Amino acid sequence: MSSTVIENFYGVYLLFCENPKYLGRTYIGYTVNPNRRIQQHNKGVRSGGAYKTSNKGPWEMCLIIHGFPNDISGLRFEWAWQHPEKSRRLRKLIERKRTKENSFQHKIRILSHMLRIGPWNRLALTIQWLVPKYRVEFETSLLPPPHMPIEEGRVISKKVPSPSKEKASTKSSSSSEKCDICHQIMDNDDVLNCINNDCTLKTHILCLASHFLKSEPDHMLPLEGSCPSCCSDLLWADLIRKFKGCYQNQNLALDETILT
C-alpha cells in the first residue's frame, strides 16, 4: 500500500481493537506522528501509550482526520469526538447509539455530523482510511463537504522546521513583490498564488481570504471564491493544500476563537 508524506501533520485518529477479548473496542486520539503513535498504543502505557489502550492490543489505526491548522484545533476536535454529549456544538445533534449499532459505527456517525458543522466544515481536512478493510461509506444524508477528500492509504508525517528569525528577516527585506490586492510588499512566506498555472496572481493569504469573504461577511474562514486576476472559481481548501506552509502563518483567518 502506498504512503503519503504530509508536512506539519496534525491528525485525530480512530483505533479499533483486534484482541478477541476486547474485540470491537475503539479509541479516539490526537497525534502529530501516526506511525509512532500506534506503536506506543500497542507497546503500552510505559512506552507512551494511553492507559485505556494499554495491554488490550493489538490495536489498528483505521482512520485519521488530518489537515488541522495547529495542535489546538486538532485537540479540540479530538475532545468533541470523544465527548459529543458535552460539546455545545454536538449535544443537540448527536443521537444515542442505535440498537444494532456497534461502537465503531457510532463513532463514524458522530464524525459525519462533526465534519458538516462549524467550525470544522470550513477547514481543509482530509478523511484518510489507513486500513482498507475498515472503510465504510458515510450515510447519504451525512456526507462530508465536497472540499474534504476521502482517501485511502498510509500517511507519513514530516516536520518542517521554522526558519530562524535572521533568515526570515533577510527573506522579508529582500522581497520586493507587492500584493495584487492591497499593493503592499509581501513576505515570501506569506504569498498565495492562483492554482491556475496561467494566472500571475500573487497576494497575501489574509488579503485573498478577505476578498473571498466579501460574499460571506459573517464568517472568518472562506470556502470558495473567484480569483481577482483570472476570475477562476477556486476552493479555499485547494489553495491551502497546495501552499500548506503558508497556511501555518495565517493567524487571523484561523483565529482560535472560531475553533472553540
UniProtKB/TrEMBL annotation:
Subunit architecture: Forms a heterodimer with a member of the SLX4 family.
EC number: 3.1.-.-
Keywords: DNA damage, DNA recombination, DNA repair, Endonuclease, Hydrolase, Metal-binding, Nuclease, Nucleus, Zinc, Zinc-finger
Source species, domain of life: Eukaryota
GO CC entries: Slx1-Slx4 complex
Cofactor: a divalent metal cation
Principal location class: nucleus
Disordered as annotated region, ranges: 153-173
GO terms of biological process kind: double-strand break repair via homologous recombination
GO molecular function: 5'-flap endonuclease activity; crossover junction DNA endonuclease activity; zinc ion binding
Gene3D superfamilies in the cross-refs: GIY-YIG endonuclease, Zinc/RING finger domain, C3HC4 (zinc finger)
Biological role: Catalytic subunit of a heterodimeric structure-specific endonuclease that resolves DNA secondary structures generated during DNA repair and recombination. Has endonuclease activity towards branched DNA substrates, introducing single-strand cuts in duplex DNA close to junctions with ss-DNA.
Domain GIY-YIG: 8-94
Compartments where found: Nucleus
InterPro entries hit by this protein: GIY-YIG_endonuc (IPR000305), GIY-YIG_endonuc_sf (IPR035901), Slx1 (IPR027520), SLX1_C (IPR048749), SLX1_endonuclease (IPR050381), Znf_RING/FYVE/PHD (IPR013083)
Keyword set includes RNA-binding: no
Xref: CDD domains: GIY-YIG_SLX1
UniProt protein name: Structure-specific endonuclease subunit SLX1 homolog
HAMAP family named in the record: Endonuc_su_Slx1 (MF_03100)
Protein family membership: Belongs to the SLX1 family.
